Amino acid sequence: MFLSSIDSTGWSCLPSAGPVSMSVTVSSSQPKVEVHEHTDAMLACEFRTEKDQNPRIEWKKKGKGVTFVFFNHTFTDSYAGRANMEGATLTMHAVTQKDSGEYRCEVTASEDHVNLGEATVTLNVLVPPHVPSCEVPSSVFVGSGLELLCKDKLSVPPATYRWYKDNKALAAVADTQYSVDANKGTLRFKSVSKTDTGMYRCESSNSVGAPKSCVGQQLKVIEYPLNMTILIAGAAGFLTLVLFCCICVCVCRRRGCCRRE
After folding, report:
1. What PANTHER family does this protein map onto (predicted)?
2. Burial class (CB within 10 angstroms; exposed 0-12, middle 13-18, buried 19+) of 194
C-alpha cells in the first residue's frame, strides 16, 4: 500500500508503515529479593504476549547447573507443597539459605513472532546469627603465643565477632598484649601471662537477628614445671656446648692447629 504526497517538486510516492510486529515480553518488578529465613519469598514475573493466550511458563534455578522449579504446569519435587504460582509470579514458603540464588522466569508463546522471553530474579535469604564454635585451650604455659578461634558459618550476612573475658568485652586498644579481628573471629596473644587466666567466650552478630554466644570456657595460664625448666635449661646448655666445640674446631683448622707429623 502506498500513500501519495505532494512536495515542492511535484508528486512522490512513499510506502506506508506496516503493522508493528510484537512478541512476548517478560520482566520483573523486583529483580532482587531479600527475605529473612523461614518467611515467604515472592519472585515477581510479569509478561505480555502478542497473540498466544495460553503461553508455557517455566521457572528455573541457576546453580552449579540449571534445575527446574516449575515445569509442565507442576512444581518439581523439592518445591512441591511449599510453593505456588499466580500468573507467572512464584511464591515460596518458609525459605531457607538453600533457596538463595538466581532464578529465571521463562515464558514461551508459540504463536508470537518472537516466542520466548525471560526475566531473572536474585533471591538472598538472610539468616540470623547461630551459636558460634569457639576454640579455647584448657591450659597454656606462661610466655607462650596463643590464638583463640571463633566461627559462625551459617549467618547471612557474615557475622562479626566479639570476645569476652569473665563477661567483659575485650577491645583492641593500644598497649595490650592481645589483638582482636572482629571479621575473622580471632583473639591473639603475643605472650600470655598469669593475668590472662579466665573464662573466655565469643559472640557472633549481624544485622538480621539477636547475637548468639558460645558457652564460656576456662583458660588457665600455668608456669613451666621445675623438671621441665631444668630439662629446657640442660638442652640449651648442651646445644651451646656443641656450638662452642664446632667453632673451636673450625678456628683450629683454619690456623693449622691440627697437623700430622
Report:
1. JUNCTIONAL ADHESION MOLECULE 2 PRECURSOR, JUNCTIONAL ADHESION MOLECULE B
2. exposed
Residue 56 lies in a domain: yes
Residue 10 lies in a domain: no
- Look-up of cell digits 667453632: 247
- Range(s) of the domain holding residue 138: 133-222
Domain check: are 33 and 118 in the same one? yes
Domain end (from 125, 156, 191): 125
- Bridge partners of 121, per DSSP, are 103
The CATH number for 120's domain is: 2.60.40.10
User: Is the Cβ–Cβ distance between 237 and 244 less than 8 Å?
Assistant: no
**Its pTM surpasses 0.85:** no
Beta strands in 72-216 (DSSP E): 74-75, 83-86, 89-92, 101-108, 116-126, 133-135, 139-141, 146-151, 160-165, 168-169, 178-181, 186-189, 198-205, 212-213
Q: Which strand (E) or helix (H) includes residue 5?
A: strand 2-7
